[in-house]
Specification:
Layout lengths: L1 E5 L9 H7 L2 E5 L3 H7 L5 E5 L4 E2 L1 H8 L6 E4 L2 E4 L4 H14 L17 H12 L4 E2 L8 E2 L4 H12 L3 H8 L7 H20 L4 H20 L3 H28 L4 H28 L7 H25 L8 H10 L2 H10 L3 H14 L2 H29 L6 H11 L3 H8 L1 H4 L6 H20 L5 H17 L12 H20 L4 H24 L7 H6 L2 H15 L3 H26 L16
Parallel strand pairs: 1-2, 1-3, 5-7
Antiparallel strand pairs: 3-6, 4-8, 5-6
Helix pairs in contact: 4-5, 8-10, 9-10, 9-11, 10-11, 10-15, 11-12, 11-23, 12-16, 12-17, 12-22, 12-23, 15-16, 17-22, 18-21, 20-21, 20-22, 21-25, 22-23, 22-25, 23-26
Length: 610
């Protein structure tokens, strides 16, 4: 329960008390705010609202009920979460001691955006180090008018705007893909409102989306034309639900740490499960087509592409002097309407990608689906990566220690690479492009021999894996602050995943490729989990976890040794055991973190391709 304290009786005809109750607040009307605050249990959220407040209910909702912020305020209203209650008590004591003048009781005493006691308290909270969220209201009204004439004018302004329509529009991301914006969101927002009015939560909708996608994967696994058609339809419906859960969270401000984790991980689980379903269906269909290598290749390509996105953004989001001619050209192109949508479609964001997969699944074969998907995603990856390389080469950005640490965490180096970094790495001079050079050299040593000469499954491949581990350590020996150092994590991901794919394909062992698919899926989950923890500001997973699963170079050594020691079904068993062990360790730690109180309630509001 939450409590709202009104600073006095509202004017006749005011709906303020009803509005606050509709938002879940118990309302107390009193001039003794300090006494009322002391009576509210410490575990409750509490709001202080000026009794003269006039405005939209949604303006109050945005300021007073968003759980992501310790405090929120609009003119005439302030709310704090339990963690900030002590600061609110101190602020109230300071404002009360300062007298009525400090409360901004007159229009000349109020600053812009604040009014009365709530405004004075918000200012004191910020002075005490508590960040106060002030939502962008747009056309919504939140004001404390002085006098009957001003009140009548504010009421008229409030009545002229339909806050429910504003609330519904704001439930949709401001930046999203073409397919999502024009083919899904126009009706999914109403589905989100329908869910909200029936008490459904975003997590329930997210779970329904996952279950729908898993059923779609099961339909694809039947290998029949009817199953493929049903799979395509269900995959599209799963995406509708995937859009709905985020819109429901924004519509009703139901954000949670669990929801952040589910939202961050289920998209990948759904897509990769569907890949597996297509591969099973192809093998069970009339042609008995084996497309597991294509399915694993699609998963490798998508994961590496996402790591490029994550690494580039982490390297540059807090960099100084972060401008370039390429970025300026991109900004000018975004000012031309049609180019915005063309560029968003070219990169195949999740909406376009899932629509493509769904239509091709219903109309063609799994092999065709993967061929088109691999070609489209490869082009998109080359397009985005080339643009980012150009930006990095033409800008003079100064990257922070935080960015360098984020890239080091994304590199996922284990004990072997760390030992190489601390020994040989210290003797190699660090230059602007040293890190990506050594990373690419390491990947070349690992992949070129086994893939081109067929040495996979031999002890020579193990020796090449050792060289890879050493060079990988040299790559991360210096802080990753160079112009292209953000390429290091995706190069490592491509090397590790590509090596697993190559060895499984070359082995010819029964079930090796499905086992490799499971291994890459388990490792990819760990890498996505790392990304979302960094995004939330809590840092990477504990280093003991990285050491426990070997780091990228340790896993490379383990798989190459397994390929050299065991052939045939023995290699398949080794991959399966390794996949199960990594999945168990990674999932246990991930679940422990994301259900803990320290997990961030981070929800993707960027609209960036996923």
């Amino acid at each position: 329960m939450s409590t709202a304290i009104l600073t006095g009786p509202p004017p006749a005809g005011s709906s303020l008390e009803e509005d606050l109750r509709s938002l879940g607040f118990a309302v107390r009307v009193t001039a003794d705010v300090a006494g009322a605050l002391a009576a509210v249990p410490a575990a409750e959220r509490v709001a202080v609202v000026d009794h003269r407040f006039v405005g939209h209910v949604h303006a109050l909702r945005l300021a007073l009920t968003d759980p992501r912020f310790p405090a929120g305020a609009v003119e005439g209203a302030l709310a704090v979460q339990p963690d900030a209650r002590a600061s609110l008590t101190r602020a109230l004591s300071a404002v009360t001691a300062a007298g009525p003048a400090a409360q901004g009781s007159g229009p000349a005493e109020r600053g812009p955006g604040d009014a009365g006691l709530p405004g004075a308290l918000a200012a004191r909270l910020e002075a005490d180090g508590v960040p106060v969220h002030r939502p962008d209201l747009g056309v919504l009204v939140a004001a404390v008018p002085d006098g009957d004439e001003a009140r009548a004018k504010t009421l008229a302004e409030t009545g002229a705007v339909d806050d429910e329509a504003v609330r519904l529009r704001s439930a949709v991301k401001s930046r999203d893909g073409f397919f999502t914006t024009f083919c899904i969101s126009p009706y999914s927002r109403y589905l989100a409102r329908w869910c909200a009015r029936r008490g459904l939560t975003p997590n329930q909708v997210t779970t329904a989306s996952l279950l729908t996608a898993l059923i779609a994967a099961g339909c694809a696994a039947t290998g029949t034309r009817g199953g493929f058609v049903a799979a395509g339809v269900l995959l599209l419906f799963s995406f509708v639900l995937d859009c709905t859960d985020g819109q429901l969270a924004r519509y009703s401000l139901q954000y949670s740490t669990l929801g952040a984790w589910l939202d961050a991980t289920f998209d990948r689980a759904k897509e990769y499960a569907f890949y597996a379903g297509l591969a099973l269906g192809a093998s069970r269909g009339g042609g008995h087509d084996d497309v597991w290598a294509l399915a694993l290749g699609a998963m490798v390509l998508m994961t590496c592409r996402h790591v490029v996105d994550f690494s580039f953004n982490e390297a540059n989001h807090d960099a100084t002097a972060n401008t370039s001619p390429t970025a300026a050209l991109s900004g000018r192109l975004d000012s031309v309407g049609w180019t915005v949508w063309a560029r968003r479609m070219i990169v195949l964001p999740i909406g376009e990608r899932w629509a493509l997969i769904a239509v091709l699944t219903a109309l063609t074969t799994p092999r065709t689906v993967f061929y088109v998907l691999l070609a489209g995603c490869a082009f998109a990856a080359c397009y985005t990566t080339a643009g980012r390389v150009l930006r990095s080469l033409t800008r003079k950005a100064q990257r922070t220690d935080r960015a360098a640490q984020a890239l080091a965490d994304l590199a996922d180096s284990g004990p072997v690479a760390e030992a190489a970094a601390g020994s040989l790495g210290r003797t190699v001079p660090g230059r602007a492009y040293s890190a990506p050079f050594w990373a690419v050299l390491a990947a070349a040593c690992l992949l070129i021999g086994p893939l081109l000469t067929g040495s996979g499954g031999t002890w020579r491949a193990v020796l090449q894996a050792v060289v890879y581990a050493v060079f990988a350590g040299v790559a991360v020996a210096q802080p990753l602050k160079g112009p292209l150092d953000w390429l290091v994590p995706p190069v490592f991901r491509g090397a590790e995943y590509g090596m697993i794919l190559g060895l499984a394909a070359q082995s010819g062992a029964p079930g090796a490729l499905p086992a490799a698919f499971g291994l890459v899926a388990a490792v990819a989950y760990h890498h996505y989990d790392t990304v979302y923890r960094i995004r939330g500001g809590t840092g990477a997973p504990p280093h003991r976890l990285v050491r426990a699963i070997g780091g990228h170079e340790g896993r490379v050594l383990a798989v190459t040794i397994a390929a050299a020691l065991w052939h045939g079904r023995g290699f398949t068993i080794a991959l399966t055991v390794l996949a199960a062990a990594i999945a168990l360790v990674v999932l246990s730690e991930s679940i422990r973190f994301w259900v803990s109180s320290g997990a961030p309630a981070v929800h993707d509001e960027t609209g960036e391709p996923a």
